[in-house]
Amino acid sequence: MPSNPRNAAAAAAEPAVEQATAGQDKAEFATPAYWDEACSHLVKRDRVLKKMIPKFGQARLNSRGDAFTTLARSIVGQQISVKAAQSVWDKLLTSLDAAGSAGSLPLKPERLLRQAPEDLRAAGLSMRKAEYLHDLALHFDGGQVHVDHWSQMDDETIIAELVAIRGIGRWTAEMFLMFHLMRPDVLPLDDLGLVKGVSLSYFSGEPVSRAEVRELGVGWSPFRSVATWYIWRSLDPLPVEY
After folding, report:
1. I need a labelling partner for 168 at 20 to 30 A (CA). Which of 29, 131, 132, 133 fits?
2. Which of 53, 50, 69, 66 is nearest to 15 (CA)?
3. Model pTM score
4. Residue 10 falls within a domain, yes or no?
5. Which CATH number do you get for residue 172?
6. Across the chain, what does the average pLDDT equal?
7. pLDDT by residue (tens digit) across 39-71?
């Protein structure tokens, strides 16, 4: 997607805030103001989503509103299920608290930097993910990311900045756009859950290509993030959170 001005729906979105709890996490969650409008759009444009969306009632995407925590959770969740990611995340917070880092959330870079990557493996992280988390903490602690400017930057510019950090590829950057900045029109073509969900819900379980998912997403725009979230929910009863 070229570097165009932000979608009007994203620019107008003012997130609502609510209290929520997931595992050991206790934080204020923000929800997108555009969600109801997006659902109305999608049920009119897509026969599968017309049946799928009502099954989940008032459930919707949540953001903890903290950039570092969102990116850290995205790294933890790379290539594993929602349930497995939550388990590892809970163990990570427990191990950091046991090491003398008070308070679970938001997770601060300095908390991770007190521990060597090798020590983070006790939470069930691979060595590579532990190193990625450490590098992420170094970038934030050293002011190498432009947190204060992200709200004025378009999606592709933010992705370019984030993928410069070790361990953050396009998929992780797209999760950040969806769950932290709550951009409404992200289609993560590298997401295994999205591809599997599209295969099961639209192609009777037959393999699908990136091109086919992209073509399907044309009908979801400008709310592809919301459609993706419901496709995820169709596979896993646990809501996807970062």
Report:
1. 29
2. 66
3. 0.76
4. no
5. 1.10.340.30
6. 84
7. 999 999 999 999 999 999 888 888 867 899 889
